[in-house]
Amino acid sequence: MQTVRVRTTQNVFIEYALASIGDRILAYVIDRVLLAIYIVTVIAVMVQTEIQGNDNITIWIAIILVAFPLLFYSLLFEIGMNGQTPGKRIMKIQVVRLDGTPATVGNYLLRWIFAPVDFLIMSGVVAVVCIAMGGKGQRVGDMVAGTTVVKANAQHEVSGNDIFIVPEETHTPTFAQVTELSDRDIELIQRALDVMREQANAEPALAITGKIKSRLGIQSDLSTADFLNTIVKDYSMLMSGRV
């Protein structure tokens, strides 16, 4: 089972089980079927009630009752149901952001805007290929929005100090200049350390080490990993007021 690891705003890693392509296709089909049933029902009611009078009024009623849900079905449901549509809820899958923060209206909007690219071009082949080959279960809309689709309630916290750098209670800050950094800087440092540890690629860590030393005017003989670990621990302790 494919998984994706997400760092939450509380700096804890959560590992999600990615929704399979089959789950996502079935959810899409269920949503289309439900939408078709709704449209047929609305049309049947309009015919049965024999709406008469101004043709313009009839047209506007049709637009509101049929076209609006047809266009905004997934967007409105994902906003209102925390990243799920009825089809996704039935299949127990959900849209989440890759940075661990709650998905916003903007995220759902971007997914919706790029849906035609995913589903209309080559009848959905683009979406299937992107999801299958991307590694994070993302279609084009997800890539733009920074989201993916996971199995709801199929996640667990990944523990261990080798995953998230936590300063020991006895840790003494070495570099007071770290208070000039931002949370975003620390996030980038930790991502660089992740890449170095998980992919044996030290280039991002080396690059960010040089930038941090230059920006803060630091000279240090510590190894790249030890230096960046110290920076993160110092920042965490100094910014939390524990010293």
What's the short version?
The chain is of the alpha+beta class.
Shape: elongated
Number of helical regions: 10
Number of strands: 4
Q: Please mark out the parts with pLDDT under 50 across 5 or more consecutive residues, or reply none.
A: 157-163
Whole-number count of domains: 2
Q: Which class do the helix and strand fractions yield?
A: alpha+beta
On the 0 to 100 scale, the average pLDDT is 83
Ordered list of secondary-structure elements with their pairings:
Elements: E1 3-7, E2 13-18, H1 21-49, H2 55-80, H3 86-91, E3 93-97, H4 105-113, H5 115-119, H6 125-134, H7 140-145, E4 147-158, H8 183-199, H9 203-216, H10 224-239
Antiparallel strand pairs: 1-2, 2-4, 3-4
Helix pairs in contact: 1-2, 2-4, 8-9, 8-10
Explain what the structure shows:
The protein has 243 residues and is an alpha+beta fold. The protein has 2 domains: 155 residues, no CATH class; 64 residues, no CATH class. It is built from 10 helices and 4 strands; from the N terminus they run ββαααβααααβααα. It has a 4-stranded antiparallel beta sheet. α1 packs antiparallel against α2, α8 runs antiparallel to α9 and α8 packs antiparallel against α10. About 3% of the residues have low confidence.
